[in-house]
Design goal:
The N terminus is likely disordered. The protein has 10 helices and no strands. The radius of gyration is 18 Å and the shape is globular. The longest helix is centred in the middle third of the chain and has 31 residues. The chain has one domain. It starts with a helix and ends with a helix. With 220 residues, it is an all-alpha fold. Helices cover 85% and strands 0% of the residues.
Length: 220
């Protein structure tokens, strides 16, 4: 535990830079998309704005707002898994900026491949509208999740006392928010899912379960 704390402390300079970059993006988004950013942070409590924004943006799915938050997602997730590595010592020889960059690149490839494979399946089986709606809901809830997780991540990096407890709380919060996110996506789209059950099962198997199995096979 002491070793992990020491490693995080030694690498705090570039971690601080990454977090500053994340907050800079959020500040710019708050200035340009003030109301939108507020709404995205409250999607766990209100689903009304999901449909409103989806109807406005479905013809231009990856706009400036979504693209900026996607970068925030990638940076926060990469930093979270880097901190997890320092704590659990899964790969003790890979605790530097290069390992963080590899995580960042891996998440880009993972999410990009998953999206384009899903888009291909949607075109092949003619459920493009349904696919777009579910992906939009998942992305919006994940943006919400990341905004909630960010303060816990900052504490995990800089909290010197009781670091073990803080890290464990961060991971528990992340897991609970993931469960909440999937529950809300399923609840909000239950009619759509049950009316297209075959395609939904295909989507889950091809794009949710299969990538995780592949990653586990490559890393274990």
């Amino acid at each position: 535990m002491f070793e992990a704390t020491k490693i995080i402390h030694q690498n705090s300079d570039w971690i601080t830079f990454v977090l500053l970059f994340v907050f800079m993006i959020l500040v710019v988004l708050k200035l340009v998309f003030r109301e939108r950013l507020f709404r995205i942070s409250t999607f766990f409590f209100s689903k009304k704005y999901l449909s409103i924004y989806f109807n406005k943006e479905k013809k231009m799915f990856f706009n400036l707002f979504q693209g900026s938050l996607f970068i925030v997602q990638l940076l926060v997730l990469s930093l979270l898994f880097y901190v997890a590595n320092t704590y659990f010592q899964m790969y003790p020889k890979q605790l530097n900026f290069n390992s963080f960059f590899l995580l960042f690149s891996g998440f880009i490839i993972y999410f990009s491949l998953r999206y384009f494979l899903g888009l291909l399946l949607a075109y092949l089986f003619n459920f493009k509208n349904e696919f777009s709606k579910i992906v939009y809901h998942k992305m919006s809830y994940f943006n919400n999740l990341i905004l909630w997780l960010l303060p816990f991540l900052v504490l995990s990096v800089y909290f010197t006392e009781y670091k073990k407890i803080v890290l464990e709380i961060t991971f528990v919060v992340f897991a609970l928010l993931l469960i909440l996110r999937y529950s809300l996506v399923l609840r909000n789209n239950k009619k759509l899912i049950f009316s297209n059950l075959f395609y939904f099962i295909l989507y889950i198997c091809a794009l949710e379960i299969a990538p995780l199995i592949i990653i586990l096979k490559l890393t274990i």
